[in-house]
Amino acid sequence: MKAIRRFTVRPVLPEPLRPLSDLARNLRWSWHAETRDLFQSVDPERWAASDGDPVRLLGSVSPARLAELAGDHRFLRRLAEVSGDLDDYMTGDRWYQTHPGELPAAIAYFSPEFGITAALPQYSGGLGILAGDHLKAASDLGVPLVGVGLLYRHGYFRQSLSRDGWQQEHYPVLDPNELPVALVEEPDGTPAQVSLALPGGRRLHARIWLAQVGRVPLLMLDSDVEDNNFGERGVTDRLYGGGSEHRLLQEMLLGIGGVRAVRTYCRLTGHPEPEVFHTNEGHAGFLGLERIAELCEGGLDFDSALEAVRAGTVFTTHTPVPAGIDRFDRELVAHHFGPEAELPGIDVERILRLGMETYPGGEPNLFNMAVMGLRLGQRANGVSLLHGHVSREMFSGLWPGFDPDEVPITSVTNGVHAPTWVAPEVFRLGARQIGAQRTEDALTVGGSDRWDAVGDIPDQDIWELRRNLREQLVDEVRVRLRASWRQRGAGTAELGWIDGVLDPDVLTIGFARRVPSYKRLTLMLRDRDRLMDLLLHPERPIQIVVAGKAHPADDGGKRLVQELVRFADDPRVRHRIVFLPDYGMAMAQKLYPGCDIWLNNPLRPLEACGTSGMKAALNGCLNLSVLDGWWDEWFQPDFGWAIPTADGAGTDPDHRDAIEADALYDLLEQRVAPRFYERGQHGLPDRWIEMVRQTLTLLGPKVLAGRMVREYVERLYAPAAHAHRAMDPGSARELAAWKAKVRAAWHGVTVDHVETSAAMATAELGSTLALRVRVGLGELGPDDVEVQVVSGRVDPEDRIADATTVPLKPAGGPDAEGRWFYEGPLSLDRTGPYGYTVRILPSHRLLASGVELGLVAVPSEETGEGAGVLMR
């Protein structure tokens, strides 16, 4: 007989052990070693069987054992100490509370996935892990964040392999009552709910679950409630599952329902209302529409409400390719909004216009979520310096007339949450050197440019640490590999060879990530004979651990997995290269520390950031990577190797792969393996150890999520909060009316004449030219614009590079023809081919940037030629 419903009967904790429940329900245990050690001591065998999940542990421990612990004074002292530490952590002042300046009272952070811990499997890859690290770092810093996501009943998927190496997906059902989450309840004890209107008079209801991530509440919406019919119950079934309408409903629930959930949570708990809303990728973009609707209900018109919402919104894009952005059919979006559906008070055409691809090459019948995110957010960023550049190029069509460098998308390079990803052995080595508290502060708050104390750790200690971590990885790989082969149908008698897989003294390379084609999982297989020579080298062998999931609908990615698995199944090399299925957080926490080299070979510049190499680096692993994402920004020969790229526009993709694979093999043969195996006078690989030391000293402080979140606070959240406060209803109406006036009158804005004091074609460094400019402003006045001189070096096509902009001052007007005059100096501050031009931008005190409206007036070709704009 099969049960129709499954649930866990939990023992009642004796009164002295009640703090265990609070410790289990706060996910700080996932990055706090002392809390995990305490739970392990409750019942070591059950702790291992529960995969290190305190909620599952407490659901399985026997009443007799609990009674024993309730009388164990030593255990109770430890419990009181750990519980007290959590209280101090939750209530004490941290970095944010002591930071000068008026910071936001609260920030709402929306993401479609969150990777907090393997015990809460609500993530698929880098976006979710980044979001989880963002929440944890915010908690450590005391940043008043509220996370908002969805609770998926099947998570992403579990991966296994068929006998012939084909990826198979499994979707285990997740019971929220067995997860470290709790229902948000109304004062009468009923579950708090939000609901969305659907076409045809139906409604989509969702409960709100709370996961407490240290100091940060994470609200997760779950549509599997009895009030919904079968279709609506399945809206939150799988992460990134289903067709277009399914995805649209998920994203409406995340954005619109998420704002309503935040309002409900603040009402019930007294938590401050967010002043800033952070949209982590376009999936949650509809949150801006809900906030516009709120303001319209309060009496603002749409345009004024849009300005108020934009002021307090931050949008982060993670994709470097248009194909990675969610786009919906306009008719599908229109069907779900308006009088018969959601947000009936807003004109559907206004909603559709927010997502229109109005740039050359755009598709007018598609609704683009990233485009809407950029239009609803006054501040936007990419996730590495290179990705910021790629994003400005990709979205430059939204700001016609401006060079991509001026597109208002900045960058904040991602970081990783060190306490989550640093092996306990690495932490202990740091604690031995500078003390546990200083080590914890260095890994969480950060703030220093260098970790110089690493320089005092003896070479022998570093090398023993690295071997110990490698040995742990070898043990982990053998356990996982045996389980994988049993799933593939192998019998015990076939698997004796697994005891000899990998060697704790062999150079170990890790490669683990999602498996889209651009990450090139199989580039290492390009020349199989050469790879075999590397794996089986008699003096300098290498061994490789590979993991990764292909999207369930991506058969091309699955073929790449199968190709790699079949190579790793070859009896000649299977002791040197392994593929581990079901890559997730639990595996990653063993994999990063145990590898000597972290390999990354994407097609440049398609890796937005790529944080796995950061996690490896924090454990003393060296990076071997294409110069893409964060590695392009921070690579130095002191702590890794750069794989040369052949990314010229005319390079054939197959030829490019061949060139870059050859470069990878050359590096491994000639540089990496010799460096690892070369021994100095004390029998240690001195030069390798020095690279490990430099990685920890110089790279460690940079890759921290604490550094990343501090940058978000100072560069994006604080300015957004100031803009939000300045945008009261009167200011919002003023700005909306001014923008409408400027857009309507811009056709009358012209640069009519530019003259300069210098008539010669060359000028001396340090000299100054006096500029006088005659402009037409049409129906606008000098208060509506800024006239600028833009100058810098010029290329052979006379394009200005590395430009400097200086405003010119009004010098009179209007004349008889209604023209105005502007004047100012132009300092010649660099040598070589040099040029300048003049332009006019809209200007208003409430704009974040003069580029914001995408309007610019520049000289006509005749005006420019007459002014002698170029000097050589």
TrEMBL record:
Keyword field contains Glycosyltransferase: yes
InterPro entries: Agluc_phsphrylas, Glyco_trans_35, Glycogen/Maltodextrin_Phosph, Glycogen_phosphorylase_DUF3417, Pyridoxal_P_attach_site
Recorded superkingdom: Bacteria
Keyword Transferase included in the entry's annotation: yes
Residue ranges annotated for the DUF3417 domain, each copy included: 13-120
Catalytic reaction annotation: [(1->4)-alpha-D-glucosyl](n) + phosphate = [(1->4)-alpha-D-glucosyl](n-1) + alpha-D-glucose 1-phosphate
Entry cofactors: pyridoxal 5'-phosphate
EC number: 2.4.1.1
Signal peptide: none
UniProt-listed Pfam families: DUF3417, Phosphorylase
SUPFAM superfamilies, sorted: UDP-Glycosyltransferase/glycogen phosphorylase
UniProt keyword annotations, A-Z: Allosteric enzyme, Carbohydrate metabolism, Glycosyltransferase, Pyridoxal phosphate, Transferase
Functional note: Phosphorylase is an important allosteric enzyme in carbohydrate metabolism. Enzymes from different sources differ in their regulatory mechanisms and in their natural substrates. However, all known phosphorylases share catalytic and structural properties.
NCBIfam families listed in its UniProt record: more_P_ylases
Similarity comment: family membership: Belongs to the glycogen phosphorylase family.
Protein name in UniProt: glycogen phosphorylase
Phylogenetic lineage: Bacteria, Bacillati, Actinomycetota, Actinomycetes, Kitasatosporales
